[in-house]
């Protein structure tokens, strides 16, 4: 019970400091934003709201002005089952990459950020 309270408190601290310091997306034209959306089509981020590594990925997305579909695997049991069935692990953050009919699952926040940065360059 004590660990649950500590995890809850830490999660709330993470969310509060993320809210205070959340990066502003870059100003882009509508055409540039449409191009980013097209480049990131087929990506879905499985995350937990208060996970520090998930926060890291969401902040990187904001800094890049990128948006991908997001699924909270903690609150959505169907999403958690998809993550476990497809990726093989119930671990977040995880990026589901669907390209040309193939599906890959990418774990690790640094790898996810590097993949998205490479897609946008």
Automatic annotation (TrEMBL):
UniProt cross-references to CDD domains, sorted A to Z: GST_N_family
Domain GST N-terminal positions: 45-119
InterPro entries: GLR_AS, Glutathione_S-Trfase_N, Thioredoxin-like_sf
Protein name: Glutaredoxin
